[in-house]
Amino acid sequence: MLAIKRRRTESEYVRRNQLLDAARKIFRDKGYEGATVSEIAKEAGLGKGTFYFYYPSKTTIAVALRDGLMVTMAAAVENAMKPDTTFDQKLNTLIGTTFEVARQNVDLFRLAFIGADETHPEMHSESSEHAALLMTVTGLFDTATRTGEMKSIDPGVAARLVLGMLQQAIIEAFVSGQGQGDEPERLEQGVRQLLVNALVR
C-alpha cells in the first residue's frame, strides 16, 4: 500500500511539473492573454481534465509559476550569502543575486508582473514564498543593525522598501525595458549605489 501511495505521489509530482513546464513555454510564446488551458494541456501531453485536476484555471498555474520564481529567488539569495562576509558584501550579494535570477528567468518575471495596471491583481497578491524572501532580508538587516554595520533603520521596513526597489528596478530592466542594451547593468549599479549609501554605516 505504501509503495502504491509513493508511486501516486511521484506521478502527481511529475504531472504537476509537466504542466508547469508546458505553461511556461506557452506563456512565453503566446503571452498570458493569448495562452489557453487547451494549449497548455496539449503541450504537456495531458488532457484538459488532468490540467483542471491540478490547477483550477489558467490563473492558478500562472500564480504557481510566480510562486516557484519566488522560491528560486529566496533559495538563490540564501545560498549566495556567506556568513563570514561584511554587511556591505552581503548587500551587494543580495542585489547581484536578484538581478542574476531575473536575467535567467526573464519570461517568468514578465509573467509575474503582468497587469501592473491592476488588470490582473491576482498576480500581485502576497504569497508565503515572497514572505520567505522578506524574512531572509529582514534577518540580514536585523543582524547588521545589531552589529552596528547598518544605519539605525527598522529592519522590517527597510527590507520591504529594499525588495520594492529591487522589484521596480527588475521591472524596468527586464519587463518594461525588455533587457535591451546596458540598461540592466546601469539599473543594477544604480541600486547598488543607492542602497550602500543609504544603509551601510
Number of domains: 2
Sequence of secondary-structure elements: HHHHHHHHH
Record field, number of beta strands: 0
Rg, nearest Å: 19 Å
Tell me the β content: under 5%
**Alpha plus pi helix count:** 9
The poorly predicted ranges are 2-7
- The helix fraction, in percent, is over 70%
Question: For the record, what CATH class of the largest domain applies?
Answer: Mainly Alpha
User: Superfamily at the CATH H level of the largest domain?
Assistant: Tetracycline Repressor, domain 2
For the residues shown, what is the average pLDDT? 88
Question: Could you explain the architecture of this structure?
Answer:
By secondary structure, the chain is mostly helical. It has 2 domains: 1-56, Homeodomain-like (Arc Repressor Mutant, subunit A), CATH 1.10.10.60; 59-199, Tetracycline Repressor, domain 2, CATH 1.10.357. 77% of the residues lie in helices and 0% in strands. Helix 4 crosses helix 6, helix 4 runs parallel beside helix 7 and helix 8 (155-176) packs antiparallel against helix 9. The longest helix has 33 residues, at 2-34. The termini are far apart. Residues 2-7 have low confidence and may be disordered.
Supply the key terms.
Tetracycline Repressor, domain 2, 2 domains, 201 residues, mainly alpha, elongated
SSE layout and pairings?
Elements: H1 2-34, H2 37-44, H3 48-54, H4 58-80, H5 87-104, H6 106-112, H7 128-147, H8 155-176, H9 183-199
Helix pairs in contact: 1-2, 1-4, 4-5, 4-6, 4-7, 5-9, 7-8, 8-9
